[in-house]
């Protein structure tokens, strides 16, 4: 695993805020190089932040690791982090805990969320927001996905609001950002290390009183997504039950 020191500032400009983009990956040898190339080219056009990209590899079994290390050697913006365990949540937790960047974020490797949302989100963090996330259900969002996934997503978010009394509208959008100090306060509360990690991040963020801003996004479904609708739905329901009846907050909103 890449050391903590290696995740902290290479070639940083001291007069600009720093922003980390984590790309959690598992067996993504086909998409990795092109997605990183697209992202780095885009970020170089927005140099008002010191950008850092971390490829967080969840113990891939294909050539993802080899490609990730090569990309790190080729580009000073890119760093490769090997995590000997599968799970998107553990990838994000590890990378976010180790960085010294002012702002942290993640995007799915397929870059389903348009990259302009990243700039809008980090700008909002720089202006004082605690957490900024994509909302595919917003009126001004432009979302392209199959009817089944649209129905499941909307239904899941209705269940979340009903069961937990939350206000955020899109828990599963694969694009989330936050101020480093805020995210680090939330991480110890989160138990899930896979897909439900996102819901817990927003649940505890809201319940702890942090300012969450949702922004509309352009989002295009990846036909090769690794998400498994029915398994993920079952895991989400189990997670919601735990948050409803066994979360880490007491009635005063403090950690148990």
Q: How would you describe this protein?
A:
The protein has 256 residues and is of the alpha/beta class. The chain has two domains: 111 residues, Spore Coat Polysaccharide Biosynthesis Protein SpsA, Chain A (Alpha-Beta Complex), CATH 3.90.550; 106 residues, no CATH class. It is built from eight helices and nine strands. The strands form two sheets. The chain has a seven-stranded mixed β-sheet with strand order 3-2-1-4-7-5-8, sandwiched between helices. Strands 6-9 form a two-stranded parallel ribbon. Helix 1 links the parallel strand 1 and strand 2. It is globular. The protein starts with 17 loop residues before the first strand and ends in a 10-residue tail after the last helix.
Task: Compose a concise summary of this entry.
This protein is of the alpha/beta class and 256 residues long.
Please give the CATH class of the largest domain: Alpha Beta
The stretches of 5 or more residues where confidence is low (pLDDT under 50) are 1-6
**Count of DSSP H/I helices:** 8
Give the termini separation.
Answer: 32 Å
Helix/strand-derived category reads: alpha/beta
The count of strands amounts to 9
Question: Could you give me the name of the CATH homologous superfamily of the largest domain?
Answer: Spore Coat Polysaccharide Biosynthesis Protein SpsA, Chain A
In the residues, how many domains can be counted?
A: 2
User: Which band does the percent of strand residues land in?
Assistant: 15-25%
H/E element sequence: EHEHEHEHEEHEHHEEH
Strand order of the largest sheet: 3-2-1-4-7-5-8
Mean pLDDT: 89
Shape: globular
- CATH-defined fold name of the largest domain: Spore Coat Polysaccharide Biosynthesis Protein SpsA, Chain A
Q: Fraction of residues in helices?
A: 25-40%
By CATH, the architecture of the largest domain is named Alpha-Beta Complex
Query: Measured on Cα atoms, how large is the radius of gyration?
Result: 17 Å
Largest sheet: 7 strands, mixed
